[in-house]
Amino acid sequence: MKDESRVPDLRLIRKHVIRLAVVLLLGPQLVVLAQNPQMQLKTSGQFPTVIFNAVRWNADPSYYSIAIDATGTATYLSAPKGVDRTGTPYTTEFHVSDRTRRIVFNLSQKLEYFAGSYGELQSSPETHSVYTLAYRYGSVKNQYTYSTSSDADLEELTSVFEELSQTFEFGRKLSDDVLHNGRAMGPQLDVRRIKADRHALRDLPALVPILRNVAADTSVDAVARKQATSLIKLAQNNSQLAFPSSP
Fold first, then answer.
1. Which of 170, 211, 230, 243 has CA 20 to 30 A from 24's CA?
2. DSSP for 93-134?
3. Cβ neighbours of residue 146 closer than 8 Å, sequence gap 6 or more
4. What is the pLDDT of residues 84-138, one digit of tens each?
């Protein structure tokens, strides 16, 4: 009798072939950006920079990278579903809040700018999320890869970057819905409003330009436009809390 456990899973093989094709299609540029997505910025290398990469093949996005420098200038890059068709990763530049910037660099300092060992590389990105934290400034090029960790500071820093990714993936999907699927926008905005009310969306003000486009688009459902306006007000309130005016 044929041992079915030894029969290769053709669907899995095909998935890996597609992923390899995407890497080859994007070429060296993506490899460089994966190391530091701010490489293309004029200020690249001028300030201390913390970089976070996350990979999990069955997630959407399967890969994302966030770089934040000491001034708060930041870049987000991800490989969402469909990148194998377009060959174009999603990328956006933004400015993190001063609160997020301070948290990232304070935790990085506590973690000795990733010069030590704080986690455990548990598995491949086929079954678990694999993270890489890096610190770049001048000749300093520290980097640490992990999957799980019991270190509280490392867990908190990982959570900050995951929350930022959730915010910008919401912005990416919202932009896609404006172009291709306006009906899906309302439920997404409703869910995100609830998360924003609970402060589960980090740095929401960075999405205000996208939300303004939705609110001003007369082809979008009126309810969705109202929800977008509500999120803009909430983002502006959050921004004022982060940067209170002088007395």
1. 170
2. EEE--HHHHHHHHHHHHHTGGGTS--SB--S-TTTS-EEEEE
3. 118, 119, 120, 121, 130, 131, 132, 133, 154
4. 655 578 888 889 999 999 999 999 999 999 987 765 665 677 778 889 899 999 8
Distance CA 104, CA 68 (A): 8
Evaluate whether residue 25 is within a structural domain: no
Six token digits for residue 225: 């436009």
Burial class of 151 by CB neighbour count within 10 A (0 to 12, 13 to 18, 19+): middle
Which pLDDT does position 165 carry in this prediction?
93
Question: Do the domain assignments include residue 14?
Answer: no
Residues 168-207: tens digit of each pLDDT: 888 888 777 666 555 555 555 655 554 554 455 688 888 8
**Parent domain of 196:** 32-242
Question: Could you tell me the pTM of the whole model?
Answer: 0.72
Q: How far apart are CA 180 and CA 149, in angstroms?
A: 40
Domain count, the chain: 1
Inside any domain, residue 120: yes
